[in-house]
Amino acid sequence: MWLRVLGSAAGGGFPQWNCSCPACRAVREGSRPCRPRTQSAVAVSADRRRWFLLNASPDIRAQIESFPALHPHDDRATPLQAVLLTDAELDHTLGLLLLREGRALELHATPAVHETLCEGTALLRTLERYCPVEWRPVVPGADVSLGGGLSYRAFDVPTTKRTRFGPGTEQGRVVGYRLTDEHSGRSAVYLPGVQELTTAVREQLNDCVCLLVDGTCWHDDELIRLGLAGKTAREMGHLPIDGPDGSLDQLSSLPIKRTIYIHINNTNPILLEDAPERRLVEKHGMEVAMDGLEVQV
């Protein structure tokens, strides 16, 4: 199984167009070692012929063009088979509209996410005016074969983040995916948004070879410190990296071959390759995703 990081930043990308935080200034000026990043999305395949998108970012067109394996090979036939959504956030779903030229779109989403995209943002109602959308309901805990030797099991990721659109129901608003190569039996977990590593969530990490995990903020009060927002990372649905109960402390001791931070906010100092926070992550044997990173499981 192969995973290709198409985009590694959180919503807004890096740099974010309206932000002049220290990291955004550094990447614009070239004053410190760091790389621009597009908004988070991952492509996965078990045979390198059929590919599946994990979320569809607003940068999806440029991301597809940057990865030849996703280019059309016969007229407008494309290796892209389906899109799997972790939630209904705009930075994970706006790219669906950019796929409207396709002959059809297979979409895997929970009923809660599907309802939000239909009745809340009306994104799917708009998309369906351009191409047929085949909805495949995602049921947490159920094993689903995608074909080509790839299967997934979605799992619920509890969140108390306030909803902007759609139903207020908690279950199914956010999920993670455990992806399995059916030939080797090896698994990877995609978890770009997690507020708390509950016992149930941690159980889904057992025996996985690779974990792509929420790296949005370093500090819980990161945006407050910078005067950019009045909410903590947890209030926005993201577990911070730092702190005694942060993800670095909780995950670094787990027997996972590769743990890679993804969905990294433009304010997070781990984007700066010479930052002490970046060195601390690497000291713990963990990685920071960049656009174009490819992992073989």
Walk me through this protein's architecture:
The chain has 297 residues and is an alpha/beta fold. It has a single domain (2-296), classed as Ribonuclease Z/Hydroxyacylglutathione hydrolase-like (Metallo-beta-lactamase, Chain A, 4-Layer Sandwich), CATH 3.60.15. It has helices at 22-29, 60-65, 90-93, 111-120, 123-127, 199-203, 222-225, 247-251, 276-283; strands spanning 2-7, 41-45, 51-54, 80-84, 105-109, 133-137, 143-147, 150-156, 175-181, 187-191, 210-214, 258-262, 287-288, 294-296. Helix 9 (276-283) links the parallel strand 12 and strand 13 (287-288). It starts with a strand and ends with a strand.
Task: Estimate percent helicity.
Answer: 10-25%
End-to-end C-alpha gap: 5 Å
| CATH superfamily descriptor | Ribonuclease Z/Hydroxyacylglutathione hydrolase-like
Instruction: Specify the CATH architecture.
Output: 4-Layer Sandwich
Largest sheet: 7 strands, mixed
Low-confidence stretches: none
For the largest beta sheet, what order do the strands appear in spatially? 6-5-4-3-2-1-14
CATH class assignment: Alpha Beta
Mean pLDDT, to the nearest integer, reads 96
